[in-house]
Amino acid sequence: MKYVIANLKMNLITPKECDRYIEILNQVWKKHIKNDTVKLIVCPSPLYTQYFSDKLPSDILLGSQNSFWEDKGSFTGEISPLSLHTLGVKAVICGHSESRLYSHESHDDIARKVASVIRHKMIAIVCVGETQEERDQDSMIQVIEEQLISAFASLEVRHFERVIIAYEPRWAIGTDVTPTTQDIMQMRIVIQKILIKQYGSEMVQKVAIVYGGSVSASNMSEVCIDADMSGVLVGRESLNASELIKMLESLSR
Ligand code: PGA
Predict the structure, then answer these.
(1) What would the pLDDT profile of 103-146 be if each residue is shown by its tens digit?
(2) Ligand 1 pocket check: which of 93, 173, 177, 210 to mutate, most ligand atoms within 8 Å of Cβ?
(3) Does the beta carbon of 135 lie inside 6 Å of ligand 1?
(4) Is 234 in the pocket of ligand 1 (CB under 6 A)?
(5) If you measure from the C-alpha of residue 73 to the centroid of ligand 1, how many angstroms do you get, rounded to a whole number?
(6) Count of H helices and E strands in the chain?
(7) What's the CA gap between 6 and 37, in Å, rounded?
(8) How far is the centre of ligand 1, averaged over its atoms, from the C-alpha of 30 (Å)?
(9) Mind giving me the DSSP string for 146-214?
(10) Which of 129, 158, 200, 246 is deepest in the core (most CB within 10 A)?
């Protein structure tokens, strides 16, 4: 299975903007030739989860940009994974670099979030990636290893069918700079080696790895040429529904 994951971030923040986006998405979706091996996951701003749940075509998967680890209780401002599940959410982004940065999410927080997403039978889209500084210091393998091992601390091998790992180098997010095809392939191999070392070789078939960071329809052939990559996580360019469909179509070929 291949995925295009649209992370709308804190955009489309009024009903009018959401309506316009959904209308265009519906139009282009109708014309697009469907392929069962490529899935589109759309993660709206959390307040509009219900809105998107009501209006998205049923064969587009609804995602969430985050969730908390407890279902309910005294957790002001948090998003319940049980609510998300009830609203039809199928996938949740965990440990996005912006959540790590602005909400100071720790490795333990992310591990708890991943476990609760899996407990609710949703897909955990787990983001990992190094900063420019870590790349310059050649410490990116250790950084990624720490992020992966900690995020999956409480998972068993069988759970990995519901995990997508998004390799998102921080320096490529929102910058219009992308790693080379070779760099992405190398990091895909690094991630697979870490998983094999930790959980055994069967992991390679189970886990989908996608790339994220300044993805657009025009650079799809560079960032996702590796047959072992399972797609892309897209930020800014996902706000353009027609571009999103072009990305899906390039993965279907
Ligand atoms: P970008 O964001 O495509 O705007 O670089 C990607 C992401 O943050 O997931």
Answers:
(1) 999 999 999 999 999 999 999 999 999 999 999 999 999 999 99
(2) 173
(3) no
(4) yes
(5) 32
(6) 11, 8
(7) 17
(8) 26
(9) HHHHHHTTT--GGGGGGEEEEE--GGGTTSS----HHHHHHHHHHHHHHHHHHH-TTHHHH-EEEEESS
(10) 129
The pair of three-digit structure tokens given for residue 224, joined into one six-digit string:
């996702």
Q: Which atom of ligand 1 is nearest to the CA of 237?
A: 3
Ligand 1 pocket residue status of 173, Cβ below 6 Å = yes
C-alpha 41 to ligand 1 mean position (Å): 14
Q: What positions carry a catalytic annotation?
A: 96, 168
Distance CA 214, CA 49 (A): 24
Any atom of ligand 1 within 6 Å of the Cβ of 212:
yes
C-alpha 191: how far from chain center:
16
What is the three-class DSSP state of 249?
helix
Burial class for 72, CB neighbours closer than 10 Å (0-12, 13-18, 19+) = exposed
Quote the pTM value: 0.97
| Closest by CA position to 20, among listed 49, 55, 47, 50 | 55
Is ligand 1 within 6 A of the CB of residue 235?
Answer: yes
**Hunting for tokens 């989908």 — which residue is that?**
208
Q: How far is the CA of 108 from the centre of ligand 1 (A)?
A: 24
Q: Residues 39-65: pLDDT tens digits?
A: 999 999 999 999 999 999 999 999 999
- What is the token pair recorded at 10? 């804190």
Q: For residue 87, which of 27, 47, 36 has the smallest C-alpha distance?
A: 47
Amino acid, res. 50:
Q
